[in-house]
Write a structure and sequence with these properties.
This protein has 78 residues and is mostly helical. It has two helices and no strands. Helix 1 (12-62) crosses helix 2.
């Protein structure tokens, strides 16, 4: 009988695929983190705008206007 050599197969293809997979996973996590940061900063500006709007409505109501008049005025209507 012939002895069969059980040589190691070259796995360079698998190494490249696994490297690419890891790199894609890492980069997608980085992109997700940046996207969440952008969304968080967007909420900060919405919160600031909301405070200004509520202050405007409160001032109009203190001057004797109704709620609907105050909201219309603060939204840019006359």
């Amino acid at each position: 009988m012939k002895e069969e050599k059980k040589g190691s197969k070259k796995c360079s293809g698998k190494k490249n695929i696994m490297f690419a997979y890891g790199f894609i996973q890492l980069s997608s996590g980085f992109v997700s983190a940046i996207a969440l940061a952008v969304i968080a900063f967007g909420f900060c500006s919405v919160k600031k705008e909301s405070k200004l709007f509520n202050k405007c409505v409160a001032e109009i109501i203190e001057d004797g206007g109704t709620n609907s008049e105050a909201v219309r005025f603060c939204n840019g209507g006359n």
